[in-house]
Specification:
Pfam families: DNA_gyraseA_C, DNA_topoisoIV
Strand content: 15-25%
CATH class of the largest domain: Mainly Beta
Structural class: alpha+beta
Protein name: DNA topoisomerase (ATP-hydrolyzing)
Catalytic activity: ATP-dependent breakage, passage and rejoining of double-stranded DNA
Keywords: ATP-binding, Coiled coil, DNA-binding, Isomerase, Nucleotide-binding, Topoisomerase
Strand order of the largest sheet: 37-34-35-40-44
Number of strands: 44
GO biological process, one term: DNA topological change
Number of helices: 18
Distance between the termini: 119 Å
CATH superfamily of the largest domain: DNA gyrase/topoisomerase IV, subunit A, C-terminal
CATH topology of the largest domain: Neuraminidase
CATH architecture of the largest domain: 6 Propeller
Shape: elongated
C-alpha cells in the first residue's frame, strides 16, 4: 500500500511530467524569442541589437574614435545582456567580418579572424566602432519610433526592435539554431532588395515571379557562383530551398606546359585552410588523380588557390572530381525563419518585403507624430515669445512688479492669457531676443513651424504619402550604400554527376579473351618489338583460354559487344575495370553484361554514333552474311538486343562497319578468301537472318569478314605464326556465295589460318599478335612483308612450346588527346628496329639459321 507524505502548509503538489513540459516549453520559447532567431523587422538577434544600441549610446559611431572591444563587451554585459562575454564578443566579431556579412555593421581594427578559420584576437586587443551603414538601422531611434522595455535588472531601458531603414534580414542574412527549429537566411544585394521594395510599394499585388526580376538571387560576401535557379525559386516562393554554390575557378597554363586550376573565390562559409587540407589528402590518397601540388597564394589583392596538375592530367576531369568530393561545390540550405510579432514563421520573399514595409510605415508614423508634437510644442512657445515682444513694456512691468519668479509666471499667465510653458519661456528669454533681428527670426521660425506642422499632418492623414516617404528613403539608401553584385548566377542546374565527367578521357586498350575475360589497360603497356619476337605476357589466362579481340578506344567511348547467339550489348569503356598490370586476367564479361547461358562475346565494335544509321555487316561461322543499319542499335535494353537470326548450328563470328567501303571480304580457316560488292546486300531487320556470303568446303569455317577500301591490304596470320600482307586489289570482285580464291599457302609448318584483318595504313599502324597462352607481341605493320595471294609469308611470332599457337591479332592506331596520330608508345624507329627510349628492345627469337623464314609465291 502506497502512502503519500503530508503536504506542508503553503505548498501544493505538482506532477513531475507537467512541470517538465512547462519548464521545457518556457526554455524553448526563451531560446527562440530571446536568443536564436532574428526579428523580421530589423533582422537582428537580441545580442546583436544590444551591441549596436550600446555602441550608439556610448557614442562609438561612424567617424568617431575606435574603442576597445573589451569596453564595448563590458558595457553590453553590464547593462543589457548578462549571458557571458563570449556570446557578446563572438556576435561583435561576426558583425565586423566582411566574409561573414555582405554589409558589415561594425568596423573593426585588429585581428577579427579570417576565411582560413583563424580565430580573432582577444577582445582586449581589438577595437571597433559602428559602420556607416549601421546608422541606417539606428536612425530616428530617439524619436519614439520603437518601443522600449526595461533591462534585466530594471535599471535601464532598451529597444525591442531598431527602426531599421535598412532591410537587414535580407541584406545580411542570418543563421541560428533554436529549439526544434533553425534559420538560415542567405544574404542579398542591397540595390536589388531596394528595387524590389520600391516595386512592391508601387504594385502591392505583384507576384513573386515579378519580384525575382529585381532580386536575382543571393549575393554572398565571398562571391563564388550559384548553379541553377530551382533552389532560389523554392526559397522565394516557400521560404525553403537548396541553393548550390560553386567556387570561381579558371584554368591557367604554366611555362613548362602544365595546367593549373586557379580558385579565386569560395562558396559562402567554406573554410579555405580546411579545403586545402582536404584536397591535399584526396591527392595523397589517390582518390583524385592528376594533382601534383597545391598552394595558397592569396594576399590582400584577393584569393588565389593554385592546384597544379600533372602533364597527363585532364583539367576538366580533375575539377569535376574536386567539385564532387570537396567543398568547392557546397549547398546552402535556406530556411527563412524569423520572428513575426514574437512568433516564429517561415517567410517567402514577398512576405519578408511586406513585413518590412509595414515596419517602416509604423516607424514613419510614430516619427511623424513625435515630430508633429515637437513642432506644435515649439510653435506654442514661439507664439508666446512673439506675444511678449508685441507687449514687451507690459511684460517688463509685470515682472518688475512681481515679488518672485512664481508670482511673475502666474501674473503673466493671467494678464496675457498664456500657458505655463509660454510664461516660463518668456521668463527664460534673454535680453538679446528683444532686438529687431531676433523678432524677425522668431516670425520666420513660426512660419516654418506652421508649414512643417501642415506637412506632418498631411503625411499622417495620407498613407500614400507615408509609402512615398519609404520609397524616397529606400532610393537614398541604395544610392549611398549599393555596390556591384559579387555572386554570379547561372541558369544551368547541377545535374546528377555523369560518370564521363569524372573519368579522364584517354586512350585505353580493351582486351577480350575467348572465355569472356575483359580488361582495360593503357596502350603503352606493350612495347613495340621486331617481327618474330618472343613477346611478353599479356594477361594471365586459364588453360585453353586465348585472346579473342583487342581494340584501342577512348575511355568515354561506347563499345558494342556482339555475341555468338546474334545479340548485342552496349558498355562504356570506363565501365570496364582498369588495371595497370598487363598480366592480370581481368574480369568476366558476364559480371558486366547480362549474358545468357552458353552465350559468348565474339566481337567488340566501336560505333561513334549509332544514330547516323549507316550499315554494319555481320558474318557467321557457316558463311552467312547480313547488312544491318546502326540505327537498329539505339535504345538497347539491359537484356540485350537481337541483331541476327541464326541457325541452331551456326554462330556469329565477325562484325564490321562499312563506312565508305564498296566491297567486303570473307576469309576462311583453310585459306580461302572471297571479295564481293556490298551493294549486293540489302539491309535487313534485326530479327532477320543472313544470306550466303561464301561457300565453304568440308569442315572449313569463316574466321574473318571485313570491308575493303582503296589501297588497303589483307593481313593474315597462321596458327604457327606465319603472316603476310597482300594488296586487296589482288582479289577481283565476284558475286557473293562463291568459294573464293586461295589467299594463303597452308602447310604443316604454317598450320591453318588463325586470324585476318584489313589494314588501311600500314606505315602508321601497329599490330598485336596474341597467342593462346596469352603471349603478346607488338610490332609495326611496316615489318610485315607484302607478298602475293598464295605465298606463305614470314615468321611474325615464334611459338614458345608445342601447346601454344596464335589465337588472334589486333590492328590499332594510337591517337593523342587532340585526335591526331601519336608516335609509337616506345619512341621512334631507328634503322628499322624498335627504339625503347634508349634501351634495347626485348630479346628476339630468330630462326635457327638466323635468317628470315620466308616462302615466295
Amino acid at each position: 500500500m502506497v502512502t503519500t507524505a503530508p503536504v506542508p502548509p503553503g505548498e501544493q503538489p505538482i506532477r513531475i511530467a507537467e512541470e517538465m513540459r512547462t519548464s521545457y516549453l518556457t526554455y524553448a520559447m526563451s531560446v527562440i524569442v530571446a536568443r536564436a532567431l532574428p526579428d523580421v523587422r530589423d533582422g537582428l538577434k537580441p545580442v546583436q541589437r544590444r551591441i549596436m544600441y550600446a555602441m550608439h549610446d556610448m557614442g562609438i559611431r561612424p567617424g568617431s574614435q575606435f574603442r576597445k572591444s573589451a569596453r564595448i563587451a563590458g558595457e553590453v554585459l553590464g547593462k543589457f545582456h548578462p549571458h557571458g562575454e563570449g556570446s557578446v564578443y563572438d556576435a561583435l566579431v561576426r558583425m565586423a567580418q566582411d566574409f561573414s556579412m555582405r554589409y558589415p555593421l561594425i568596423g573593426g581594427q585588429g585581428n577579427f579572424g579570417s576565411i582560413d578559420g583563424d580565430p580573432p584576437a582577444a577582445m582586449r586587443y581589438t577595437e571597433a566602432r559602428l559602420a556607416a551603414i549601421a546608422d541606417e538601422l539606428l536612425a530616428d531611434i530617439d524619436q519614439n519610433t520603437v518601443d522600449f522595455v526595461t533591462t534585466f535588472d530594471d535599471s535601464l531601458t532598451e529597444p525591442t526592435v531598431l527602426p531599421a531603414r535598412l532591410p537587414n534580414m535580407l541584406v545580411n542574412g542570418a543563421s541560428g539554431i533554436a529549439v526544434g527549429m533553425a534559420t538560415n537566411i542567405p544574404p542579398h544585394n542591397l540595390g536589388e532588395i531596394c528595387d524590389a521594395l520600391v516595386h512592391l510599394i508601387d504594385n502591392p499585388d505583384t507576384a513573386t515571379e515579378r519580384l525575382m526580376r529585381f532580386v536575382k538571387g543571393p549575393d554572398f560576401p565571398t562571391g563564388a557562383k550559384v548553379r541553377g535557379r530551382k533552389g532560389i525559386v523554392d526559397t522565394y516562393t516557400t521560404g525553403r530551398g537548396r541553393i548550390i554554390m560553386e567556387a570561381d575557378t579558371e584554368f591557367e597554363e604554366t611555362r613548362n606546359n602544365r595546367e593549373q586550376i586557379i580558385v579565386t573565390s569560395l562558396p559562402y562559409q567554406v573554410n579555405k585552410a580546411t579545403l586545402i587540407e582536404r584536397i591535399a589528402a584526396l591527392a595523397r590518397e589517390k582518390k583524385i588523380d592528376g594533382i601534383s601540388d597545391i598552394r595558397d597564394e592569396s594576399d590582400r589583392r584577393g584569393m588565389r588557390i593554385v592546384i597544379e596538375l600533372r602533364r597527363d592530367a585532364q583539367p576538366r576531369v580533375v575539377l569535376n572530381n574536386l567539385m564532387r568530393q570537396t567543398a568547392l561545390r557546397s549547398s546552402f540550405n535556406s530556411i527563412v525563419l524569423a520572428l513575426v510579432d514574437g512568433q516564429p514563421q517561415v517567410l517567402p520573399l514577398r512576405r519578408c518585403l511586406e513585413l518590412f514595409i509595414q515596419h517602416r510605415q509604423e516607424v514613419i508614423r510614430r516619427r511623424s507624430e513625435y515630430q508633429l508634437q515637437r513642432a506644435r510644442d515649439r510653435d506654442h512657445i514661439v507664439q508666446g515669445l512673439l506675444l511678449a515682444l508685441d507687449r514687451i513694456d507690459e511684460v517688463i512691468e509685470i515682472i518688475r512688479s512681481s515679488a518672485d519668479v512664481e508670482e511673475s509666471r502666474n501674473n503673466l499667465m493671467q494678464r496675457l492669457d498664456l500657458s505655463e510653458v509660454q510664461a516660463q519661456a518668456i521668463l527664460d528669454m534673454q535680453l538679446r531676443r528683444l532686438a529687431a533681428l531676433e523678432r524677425e527670426r522668431l516670425q520666420n521660425e513660426h512660419q516654418e513651424l506652421l508649414q512643417r506642422i501642415a506637412e506632418l499632418e498631411a503625411l499622417l492623414g495620407d498613407p500614400e504619402k507615408i509609402l512615398s516617404e519609404i520609397k524616397s528613403e529606400t532610393r537614398e539608401l541604395k544610392k549611398s550604400f549599393n555596390n556591384p553584385r559579387r555572386t554570379v548566377i547561372f541558369d544551368e542546374e547541377v545535374g546528377e554527376e555523369t560518370p564521363e565527367s569524372l573519368i579522364p578521357q584517354e586512350d585505353a586498350m580493351i582486351t577480350l579473351s575467348q572465355r569472356g575475360y575483359v580488361k582495360r589497360v593503357p596502350p603503352n603497356t606493350f612495347r613495340q618489338q621486331n617481327r618474330g619476337g618472343k613477346g611478353v605476357r599479356g594477361m594471365t589466362t586459364r588453360e585453353g583460354d586465348a585472346i579473342l579481340d583487342l581494340v584501342v578506344v577512348d575511355t568515354h567511348s561506347t563499345l558494342f559487344f556482339f555475341t555468338n547467339r546474334g545479340r548485342v550489348y552496349p558498355l562504356r569503356a570506363f565501365q570496364i575495370p582498369g588495371d595497370a598490370s598487363r598480366t592480370s586476367r581481368g574480369v568476366l564479361l558476364s559480371n558486366l553484361l547480362p549474358l545468357q547461358r552458353n552465350e559468348q562475346v565474339q566481337a567488340m565494335l566501336l560505333i561513334a554514333n549509332p544514330n547516323d544509321d549507316y550499315p554494319l555487316l555481320l558474318a557467321t561461322l557457316k558463311g552467312q552474311i547480313k547488312s544491318l543499319k546502326t540505327g537498329e542499335l539505339t535504345n538497347i535494353r539491359p537484356s540485350g538486343l537481337i541483331v541476327m537470326n541464326l541457325a541452331s548450328d551456326d554462330e556469329l563470328v565477325s562484325v564490321a562497319q562499312v563506312g565508305d567501303a564498296k566491297d567486303a571480304m570473307m576469309v576462311s580457316e583453310r585459306g580461302q578468301a572471297i571479295r564481293f560488292a556490298i551493294d549486293d546486300l540489302t539491309p535487313r531487320s534485326r530479327t532477320a537472318g543472313g544470306v550466303r556470303g561464301i561457300r565453304l568446303i568440308g569442315d572449313d569455317r569463316v574466321i574473318f569478314m571485313g570491308v575493303v577500301t582503296t589501297n588497303s591490304q589483307l593481313l593474315v596470320v597462321s596458327q604457327r605464326g606465319y603472316g603476310k600482307m597482300t594488296a586487296t586489289s589482288s582479289y577481283r570482285s565476284t558475286g557473293r556465295g562463291g568459294q573464293g580464291v586461295r589467299t594463303f599457302q597452308l602447310t604443316e609448318k604454317s598450320g591453318p589460318l588463325a586470324a585476318a584483318r584489313i589494314v588501311n595504313d600500314p606505315e602508321n599502324q601497329e599490330m598485336l599478335i596474341i597467342s593462346a597462352l596469352a603471349q603478346v607481341v607488338r610490332i609495326s605493320t611496316e615489318d610485315v612483308r607484302e607478298t602475293g595471294r598464295i605465298a606463305q609469308g614470314v615468321i611474325l611470332w615464334k611459338e614458345r612450346g608445342s601447346d601454344d599457337q596464335v589465337a588472334s591479332i589486333a590492328i590499332f592506331q594510337e591517337t593523342d588527346r587532340n585526335g591526331e596520330a601519336a608516335p609509337p608508345a616506345n619512341g621512334h624507329r631507328r634503322n628499322g628496329r624498335a627504339s625503347t627510349n634508349g634501351h634495347e628492345p626485348e630479346t628476339q627469337i630468330d630462326d635457327e639459321d638466323g635468317q628470315e623464314d620466308e616462302v615466295d609465291e
